[in-house]
Amino acid sequence: MNGAAPSQRRVAGVLLHPTSLPGRHGIGEIGSEAERWLERLAGMSQRLWQVLPLGPTGYGDSPYQTLSTFAGNHLLISCDTLRDAGLVDDDRLRSLPLLPETHVDFGALIGPRVRLLHEVAAGFPRRASPAQRAGLEEFIETHRGWLDDYALFVSLKEHFEGRSWHAWPVDAARREPAVIAAARQTLAEPIAHTRVLQFLFHDQWLRLRRRAAALGISIIGDLPIFVAHDSADVWCRPDLFTLDADGRATVVAGVPPDYFSRTGQRWGNPLYRWELHEAEDYAWWIARLAHAFSLVDILRIDHFRGFAAYWEIPADHPTAEHGRWVPGPGRKLFDAATRALGPRSIIAEDLGLITADVHALRDELGLPGMRILQFAFGDSPQEETYRPESYPANSIVYTGTHDNDTTVGWYQGTSGGDSTRSADEIAREQHAVRTYLASDGSEINWDLIALALGSPADTAIYPLQDVLGLGTEARMNVPGREWGNWTWRFRWEQLTSPIEERLENLTRRFGRG
């Protein structure tokens, strides 16, 4: 794997997950609305579109806790594209419930949406064109290495009423060959439906990626370092993870207490048995990276520091306070991936408690790191690192990420559920940012966007919420909060011509057009 993220110098882009796109069916989709988004991006001289992980979400709807690291989120399949392809009737689409335009109501959406998609999958052999049927067969053959197991996993999960795989009957949890063979026959219909839905997702997404390329836009994907315990990945290869004989994690992932959290963060993901990955020359990781790069042009790897060293927490501990640092695979994994896949563009998410060994690994690999402008004006010990004048060219500057409040919400101190800052700290930050920018703070979102665009970093990215000047009500995620995340959506009327023109002019002014 190699360095510079985008292929061009001095570029800019927008962070927006597809679930946040407009659309008439309750959630962002990857059809015509997404193509319209790409066209608007190109019109604003933006050359990058950054998304969150694209996998199928489970409990909590988090794209960072997916049922598979290979599968796509079937909820993003465009119903209108299915209709245009003759796979569903418009009358059936009109029967879907009316859902909010301003946010994703996952509870109301998932049931009707999944029923419709299974109807489409059931009717696919009858309604699909010869080219579509041939495409499905080619997709099944090409992706058999993960598709068959994922289709069986989700079918068994539904059969066992949604329980986590380690709570299934022991013979199913342990993948006893006779039980698996019988399940493939008994559950043949839902397995076939899942294959069709994965084909439809990947077909629509790759069409969208081709459209992005035609417009000169590169897509930045997101790869969490860890995978969910309740996933097809862990169920299929439990030997690669730190599990006991019953399939339960013995130690889990997280980060220790720091400036932002007195008890740290306990994520709960099982950790890797890195010695077994190394013995297989990192084949599982190489397959994972290869698949990710088949969908995106650039890959942001979340929690990059875990490759240098990761925080190991005993699974029976309720917080992350009592863990230990354990060495990760270092550059051995990346060297193996480069041998197998050739040079690829990766961004190292190097936020949080970063030590010299993490910086050394990032720099040895030539990877750009991340700089967050919201971190530049507070009382954090890392404040100077995030000041724009200190940015190396080979870095990515963000006004904020999906885990931050919007720039307006951050400046106003409304927090959106993140109560780590006191009133005095907020006041000091407000004064510091106004002084630094020589600004009255009335357009703080544009102030920070201009600061990002004018910085030495080769790449500048901002969430769409900051372009629109939205407050805390538009925050995407509050880390540690188990409800109300990942739901924000925008409406086309919010992205006005004056906003588009302003962003385009700023982007060109700073030589990123």
List the defining traits of the structure above.
alpha/beta, 513 residues
Report on this model:
With 513 residues, the protein is α/β, with parallel strands linked by helices. 41% of the residues lie in helices and 11% in strands. The protein is built from 19 helices and 12 strands. The chain has an 8-stranded parallel sheet. A 4-stranded antiparallel sheet has the order 5-4-7-8, with no helix packed on it. Strand 1 (11-15), helix 1 and strand 2 form a beta-alpha-beta unit. Helix 5 (130-142) crosses helix 9, helix 6 packs across helix 9 and helix 12 packs across helix 13 (331-341). The longest helix is centred in the middle third of the chain and has 27 residues, at 188-214. It is globular and about 70 Å long. The protein starts with 10 loop residues before the first strand and ends with a helix. 45% of the residues are buried. The model has no long low-confidence stretch (mean pLDDT 95).
